[in-house]
Amino acid sequence: MASSSSFLLLASLLAMVSWQAIASDPSPLQDFCVADKDSPVLVNGFVCKNPKDVNANDFFKAAELDKPRMTNKVGSNVTLINVMQLAGLNTLGISIARIDYAPLGQNPPHTHPRATEILTVLEGTLYVGFVTSNPNNTLLSKVLNKGDVFVFPVGLIHFQFNPNPHVPAVAIAALSSQNPGAITIANAVFGSKPPISDDVLAKAFQVEKGTIDWLQAQFWENNHY
């Protein structure tokens, strides 16, 4: 009997751990939980605004996602609408982004630590892909045309590139988190503050330290706005 009870307890604990491991943003327990960004209380996300004080503007933003954006030196501009811009997204587990690509522009290799992304091309053509985790590091890539859809699994390194030298491209992406986060690989590795030791990076990339020093001296521009 004791053995059976121990087994049931272990199974319950494993189920709880597994649920936490696969969960994205926590599911809401009420109709909505509009973020109260002025609250001094710190929680995973934001404290709920008093429902009596909620109005339609908490769920609205004149984001003008129909208008093109200026791109930067990597040739892209990511306009993200997450809980920081739209308080009504709190606890709803979703956000949206417009991505503009200049001719030959790219959204460089990056990850979203808290979200899966589904992307659809509105204008132009994109070469997109993601890389699976160790040890295989398999590249899965595809050329997308207007109206095509592609999914990037949560946490995996992925990218988008506009192969057309003359025509810009536009995409809309939905992400499965109110705050998906973004880690651009080059920026994180070579543009961290303070910098990662060049001894560490030279060993990791199997290059001379001078090469690392040159890379760290570059301006690693952010394309998320």
Q: What does this entry look like structurally?
A:
- The chain starts with a helix and ends in a 9-residue tail after the last helix.
- The strands form 2 sheets. The chain has a 5-stranded antiparallel β-sheet, with no helix packed on it. Strands 6-5-8-3-10 form a 5-stranded antiparallel β-sheet.
- It is α+β, with helices and mostly antiparallel strands.
- The chain folds into 2 domains: 160 residues, Jelly Rolls, CATH 2.60.120.10; 42 residues, no CATH class.
- Strand 5 and strand 6 form a beta hairpin.
Count structural domains.
2
Q: Numbering strands along the chain, what is their spatial order in the largest sheet?
A: 1-2-9-4-7
CATH architecture of the largest domain: Sandwich
Gyration radius, rounded: 21 Å
- Give the overall average pLDDT: 90
Q: Output the number of helix runs.
A: 4
SSE order, one letter for each helix or strand? HEEEEEEEEEEHHH
- End-to-end separation: 59 Å
Structural class: alpha+beta
What CATH first level of the largest domain would be assigned? Mainly Beta
Classify the fold: give the CATH topology of the largest domain.
Answer: Jelly Rolls
Low-pLDDT stretches = 16-23
Major sheet, described briefly? 5 strands, antiparallel
Task: Write the CATH homologous superfamily of the largest domain.
Answer: Jelly Rolls
What is the count of β-strands?
10
User: What characteristic shape results from the CA principal axes?
Assistant: globular
* Beta-strand content bin: 15-25%
Helix fraction, binned, reads: 10-25%
Main location: secreted
Catalytic activity: oxalate + O2 + 2 H(+) = H2O2 + 2 CO2
Keywords: Apoplast, Cell wall, Disulfide bond, Manganese, Metal-binding, Oxidoreductase, Secreted, Signal
Organism: Brachypodium distachyon (Purple false brome)
